[in-house]
Write a structure and sequence with these properties.
The chain has 377 residues and is of the alpha/beta class. Helices cover 30% and strands 29% of the residues. The protein is built from 8 helices and 21 strands. The strands form 5 sheets. A 6-stranded parallel β-sheet has the order 2-1-3-4-5-8, sandwiched between helices. A 5-stranded antiparallel β-sheet has the order 10-18-15-20-13, with no helix packed on it. Strands 17-16-19-14-21 form a 5-stranded antiparallel β-sheet, with no helix packed on it. A hairpin with a 2-residue loop joins β11 and β12. α1 packs across α6, α2 crosses α3 and α5 runs parallel beside α7. It is globular and about 85 Å long.
Length: 377
């Protein structure tokens, strides 16, 4: 194994930054992550220490919205200047990946801040002998977005989950890229060898869709999944799967556990465990008292745990959070919990008898692409 590339992300706590930080955590054989905090931009000492620690800096930190566009422009240009000043103070030339936007060409101050910020970085690279790659990015969507800020999809998901009717203001065709796909683009740029000093390219969108068509899909997810407990038809590696995983990230954690409907007669009982419009893999496990299974997370898979006999504690924790969600399930009243992506999860037998759990996942296990990362809850 070669030397690990040290990567820092300005805006690490934001939507794109946090996803990229977590994504790079799955690349531990090639990347070591350098932590960044928002306060670094207010401390020359901390910012200089940060730039000196990095081989590559992904500059994502920016203001997207404000009632005064001039504030957006001044803020974003100010952040770029602070980053350049820190590099010059330490006489270092980390490779800088600049997160720009297709709004560069639009007549607004946000787009102008991206265009002018890119020019400042390119001028620095030319003068200092550094490397800058600017990625001009289309509309980005994904789980955990901030409603009314990051994307209209985050806003629609939030509104639908909360029983409100979203409004389509402009039913245009929108070019989109899913956050995981964008993180892969950043990753490939990070590990690229022998690049030119100054590069700029448009990140290709992966989907084009009318706003109203997206809204229709999201409303259908609400009816099928939230109201009826059914996983909708979502093909593997599809826009619909990415949109579904985005939608489910807005469901409150107290939605689970969901109790099954049990049909009983003198023969015993019958319970329907799973109804889905998509293929998948079903399995079951037995667990002796006191034993815990799991402690891993997925980045794309839809997964259901159904306890049908015994007593279990299911725990979930988003991998960049300390908050743990706990659910107690008992086979006396069979119930299920679905595992959200980017949440490490486990299941423990807390009863005195054998625990029987049924599992469903939307894709068969593939050891060459397992989408399973081990982290303790």
């Amino acid at each position: 194994m070669g030397q690990l590339i040290k990567v820092g992300i300005t805006g690490q706590g934001g939507f794109m930054g946090s996803h990229l930080f977590n994504f790079l955590g799955t690349k531990a054989e090639e990347i070591t992550r350098v932590d960044f905090e928002r306060s670094f931009f207010e401390s020359n000492v901390e910012l200089q220490k940060f730039v000196k620690s990095c081989d590559v800096i992904v500059h994502i930190a920016a203001m997207n919205r404000h009632e005064d566009e001039q504030v957006i422009y001044d803020t974003n240009i100010g952040l770029v200047k602070k980053l350049i000043d820190a590099c010059e103070a330490e006489n270092v030339t980390p490779k800088i990946l600049f997160s720009s936007s297709t709004q560069e060409e639009r007549d607004n101050l946000y787009g102008k801040s991206k265009r002018d910020g890119r020019q400042l970085l390119e001028d620095w690279a030319t003068k200092a002998g550094g490397k800058v790659a600017s990625l001009i990015i289309p509309n980005v969507f994904g789980p955990f977005g901030k409603p009314f800020y990051n994307s209209f999809i985050a806003t629609f998901c939030h509104q639908i989950i909360n029983g409100k009717e979203p409004t389509v203001i402009n039913d245009s065709i929108v070019n989109l890229i899913y956050i995981n796909q964008l993180s892969e683009v950043f990753f490939q740029e990070i590990i690229k060898k022998d690049t030119d000093e100054i590069q700029s390219y448009v990140v290709p969108h992966t989907t084009s869709c009318k706003v109203s068509e997206i809204l229709t899909l999201l409303k259908d997810f609400k009816i099928q999944y939230v109201d009826n407990g059914q996983v909708p038809k979502v093909d593997l590696n599809s826009f619909e799967l990415d949109l579904f995983n985005t939608f489910t990230s807005f469901i409150p954690k107290d939605y689970f556990p969901r109790k099954f409907t049990m049909h009983s007669d003198d023969r015993g009982a019958f319970v329907e465990i799973m109804r889905a419009g998509t293929a998948g893999q079903s399995s079951y496990s037995t667990t002796v008292p006191g034993i815990t299974r799991g402690n891993h997370y997925h980045t794309r898979k839809v997964e259901r745990f159904a306890v049908i006999s015994g007593k279990a504690l299911i725990q979930l924790r988003k991998i960049d959070s300390d908050e743990v969600f706990e659910y107690i399930l008992d086979g006396v009243e069979p119930a299920y919990v679905d595992m959200p992506i980017w949440y490490t999860h486990n299941i423990k037998n807390i009863g005195n008898t054998e625990l029987i759990t049924l599992f469903w996942i939307n894709e068969p296990y593939n050891p060459d692409d397992a989408d399973t990362y081990f982290v303790k809850v």
